[in-house]
Every structure is written in structure tokens, then in C-alpha cells.
Amino acid sequence: MSEITSTAPVLSVENLRVRFQTETGIVKAVDDVSFELRKGEVLAIVGESGSGKSVTAMSLMGLTRGVNATIEGRAMLGETDLIAADDEQLRRIRGEELAMIFQDPMSSLNPVYRVGPQITEMIHAHRDVSDAEADRHAIELMESVGIPAAEERFRAYPHEFSGGMRQRVMIAMALSLEPRVLIADEPTTALDVTIQAQILRLIEALNRDHDVATILITHDLGVVAEVADRVVVMYGGRVVETGTLDQIFYEPQHPYTWGLLGSVTRLDRPGTERLVQIKGQPPSLVDPPVGCHFRPRCPFAFDRCGELPPLEAHGADPTHLDRCLLPESDRERHRAELAEQTGADAA
Predict the structure, then answer these.
(1) pTM of the shown model
(2) In this structure, are residues 213 and 25 in contact, taking their beta carbons and an 8 Å threshold?
(3) How many helices (H) and strands (E) does the chain have?
(4) For residue 114, which of 164, 163, 151, 143 has the smallest C-alpha distance?
(5) d(CA 25, CA 72)
(6) Residues 242, 13 contacting (CB under 8 angstroms)
(7) If pLDDT is split at 50, 70 and 90, which confidence band does 88 have?
(8) Measured between alpha carbons, how far is 245 from 227 in angstroms, rounded to an integer?
């Protein structure tokens, strides 16, 4: 986890909504999502598959635009609104100001081109430099992300790299123009745990050394615990809770967050114990539940859950927000009950 060097947001997302017209109806993929990202910070966006976290990230990059997509809201990167920017503006911003690491490096790298030229292509697209300068910078980047014999591997093809080394190539490519914001979409999903730890340490070091602001998209709370400063929990296209890492792990307020934490493997519990799973399935975003989207799966739902809960603070810290209508006294009791079942620490 990094030390935040500035309180001014580098990226401010306000009321982001993304909808897709499909044959079965309108998919409400992202519904009124807001958050801020600061220089030197790692902001983790977590949730199950289909929660809207990757669509949020890709919409910031302009990758969800199309005739069937409707995108509303604001995403201010400095003085530029990424949502209102035209395609030419986004082409200049991508790589230069905002870069993304995708979860599958093998499908992101072109298999018929050598790795080095794929990095230099990004450099040439934005910088007026000679081939020799671009090659030298690419090799330096490969060395900086821990690729051994970088000058030799510069001429290698993607299939000649391991999964972890391919991901390092993608990180080098993303950092080639020194962007202010880095989006990492499930960067460790296809890697074994040892390589996962190496990639996370690399992202943390780069974030600290280059003052990059990072958005980490993941469903793995173990990854979140390793590197995040703040956490946004998404469910059914909405933000259901947001706060610092300690607040989310030790003072969670939303029943969905309790469920996520309860399903994490713990070293201090017997290995024969079954994890407590969240019952049911994520909602259809074509026809989501009325009111709280988590209501059909929530063991603590009551009559008011048919209303749309606002995202607001319920504790002493005004920055710790959640979207739940449970009274605070009931939350403490229910959280204690879950802690007894799962062995999690009750706040």
C-alpha cells in the first residue's frame, strides 16, 4: 500500500451510467457509479462477475462506445471529461494520460509480432523519436518491470514468455508513456499464486516510485488486502460500499461485503471447514430487483429493502459510505452473528 502524496483527485467519476441495448432488453451494466482517485493511490474495485467493475473501467478508456451503448455521467481526468471526449481526444489520452493492463496478456499481445516492436509501436504513436530511441526506452521499461536479459527478450515472440513475463510486458507497455492513471483489470487472474505475488509487488512498487494512480479491478479480496489503499465494492452495477482498506475489512457495513469477506479462506480456521457462500445468483441487469439489488440474496432483508437505498455514511467517518437501509443497531448484531459463523473479526 502506498503513501498518498496528494489529496486532490487525479480522476473524478460522477454518476456514471452505462446501458447496452440487446435483443433481450436494456442491460443496465453500470448504474450511478461515483468515486475519486488520487495521485499515488491504489483504488480497488471489487465484486462478483457481472457487477459492472470491468465495464466501468472500459468505459473510462472509451472501449464500450458503440451504436447500442448509452453512456452518461462525468469522468474528469484533469480538465478533460473522458465521457464527453471525442474519439480523437481519447486516442491522444490513451497511453499518454490513461493506460490499461488487461487480464489476459496472451490475447492482448499480437502473437505474430515480436514483443519489443509492440512496445515501441505505442511510443511511436505518441512521441516523435527515432527507432533507436524507442528501442532503448522499451528495453529500459522491460528491465524496470523485472524481465531478465531484456535486450535479448526484446526480439522474442509472446509465446516464448511465461504468463507472468507476458504480464510484465503488458505493464511495461502501459507505462511506456508515463500515464497519470493506470487501470489493471484482473492482472493476476491467470497466474499461479507465486507469480501473482510478484506482479502485485511490481504494481505496488511502480505505483510508489512513479506516483501513478492505479485502479485495480478484481474479485479477489486477497489481492485487495495486499495492495489497496481504498476499496469500492460493486454489486448489480452499483456501488454498495466504499471506504479505506481497514474500513472495508474491519468495519464493513453492507451485507454483501460481509458475504464477500465470509467467503475468503482463512489460515486461522480448520481446513476442513466449508466456506460460507452467498446464496443465490447475481441479478439480471436487464431486469434487476426493485430497490436494493442485493435484496433477493440478503439474509437480513426487510420490508424497506424495496426502496432504493442511498449511498451515504452511517458511521463517524463521512468517507465510509454504504448503500443499506438496515438500522445501525441491527447491523452490529447481524455482523456479530456472521462473525461467529465464519470466524471473521466483528467490528
Answers:
(1) 0.89
(2) no
(3) 12, 12
(4) 151
(5) 18
(6) no
(7) very high
(8) 9
